[in-house]
Amino acid sequence: MKITDARVIVTSPGRNFVTLKIVTDQGVYGIGDATLNGREKAVVAYLEEHVIPVLIGRDARRIEDIWQYLYRGAYWRRGPVTMRAIAAVDVALWDIKGKALGAPLYDLLGGKSREGVLVYGHANGADIAQTSDEVGRYIDMGYKAIRAQSGIPGVDKAYGVGRGDMFYEPADAALPTETVWSTPKYLDHTPKLFEALRVRFGMEPHLLHDAHHRLTPLEAAQLGKSLEPYRLFWLEDVTPAENQEAFRLIRRHTTTPLAVGEVFNTIWDCKDLIQEQLIDYIRATIVGAGGVTHLRRIADFASLWQVRTGCHGATDLSPVTMGAALHFDTWVPNFGVQEYMRHTPETDAVFPHAYSFSDGLLFPGDAPGHGVDIDEALAAKYPYEPRQLPVARLEDGTMWNW
Asked: What is the pLDDT of residue 149?
C-alpha cells in the first residue's frame, strides 16, 4: 500500500486547524492533526518542505518504520513543530490501517479496557459565584468531572476565564494580547473558590484546577497544601516543568494530586517526573507527543510507576486528535481522565466524527480508523486567520509565564 499523495489543509472554522491528508494507491486515505496554537504556519512549512517529499512512495503499512525515519532520521529533532508534524503522519497512517482492515483504532491497539471515557469540562466565571453556577450547569449536563477557574479580584483577564459560553479559545489576536498577573492575589483567592464549590456541591463531583505554569515550586507547594481539604482530582501545571526536579520540592509538601505535560513533546520531557513518582497524571497529547506510536510508549512507561493518563483536550486540538485520543483512552490500561473542551458547531461540521457524549463519558464509536473525517469543500470556506496566544506580565511589568 504505497503513499501516492499527501497534502496540508488549513482551515479556521472559529479557530485555526492544520490537517494532513495522506492518500494511498489503494484509494484509502487517512487524516492527522498538526495544529500548533499560534504557530500553525511553522508546522505547515515543516510538513510541506521536509516531511511530505519523503513520504511519497513509502508503504503506508509500515507505521513504526516511518515514525523512526521521521524522528531518528532528523538530526534536528524533538520540539513542538517537529513532533506535531510526526504526529500528523502517525495518526493518518493509523487511520489508514484501521480503514484498510475494517477495524476501529482501539482494536488495533489491543481492544477495549473500558466501555466509556471519563471526561472533564471547563466551568469558569468572572467571580466565584458565576463559576459555581457554571459548575452546577456542567453537573446538570451529566459531567462527573469539572475543571473550575475563576476571575481574581484585581487581576484583569485571569487565565481560564472564557470570553464566550462553552467554547473557550485564548488565542485572540494577530499580535499577542498582554495580560497582568499577580501570584499573591491568586494564592489568596483560589482556596476560597474550592471551599465554596465543596460547600455547595459536596465531595462527590471530581474537581480540577489549572495553575498554568504561573507558580514557583514553593508557591505551588503552598497552593497544593491549601487545597488539600477540598480533595481535588488534580492540580495541573503548577510550575514550568523544564526543570523536572522542581516537582521534588512540591511533592514533599502536598498530597494534592499533580498533573503536567500538555506542552511535552517526548518521553524525555517526563522521564524523571514519572520514574520518581513526582506526578500522578501525565497530560502529553497525541498531537503534541508524536502521535499514537509515541504516546503509547509514554503511557506504558508511566504504568510502571502507577502514573495515569490525562490527555490535554482543549479546542486547539482538532476533532481529529480528539477522535484518536478517545480510541487511545478506550484502550490504555492506566487511563485517568480526558479533557473535553467542546468545539464550535462550525468546527464539528468541518470535521464530522463518530465520537459522542453521554452521562459524563465520551465514546469513540466503532467506525474504522479513528472515526473522524474532513469536509474539504466546507473547510475551504474558512480561511486561515492569524491568531496568537496572550503573554503575561507581573504587576511591575516583569515578563511572566502565560
From this structure: 97
Pairwise CA distance, residues 18 & 262, whole Å? 18
The 8-class DSSP code of residue 37 comes to T
Cell of 228: 488539600
pTM metric for this prediction: 0.96
pLDDT at 164 over 80: no
- pLDDT at position 332 is 98
163 pLDDT band, cuts 50/70/90, is low
SS3 string, 84-147, reads HHHHHHHHHHHHHHHHHHCCEHHHHHCCCCCCCEEEEEEEEECCHHHHHHHHHHHHHCCCCEEE
8 A C-beta contact, residue 317 and residue 88: no
Active-site residue, 159 included: yes
Given pLDDT bands bounded at 50, 70 and 90, which one contains residue 165?
A: low
120 is catalytic: no
For residue 27, what are the CA distances in angstroms to 3, 23, 30, 370?
A: 10, 7, 10, 17
User: 80 is written with which cell numbers?
Assistant: 513542538
Marked catalytic residue, from 46, 71, 138, 159: 159
Catalytic pick from 209, 212, 294, 327?
A: 212
Residue with cell 515543516: 46
- Check: CB of residue 372 under 8 Å from CB of residue 345: no
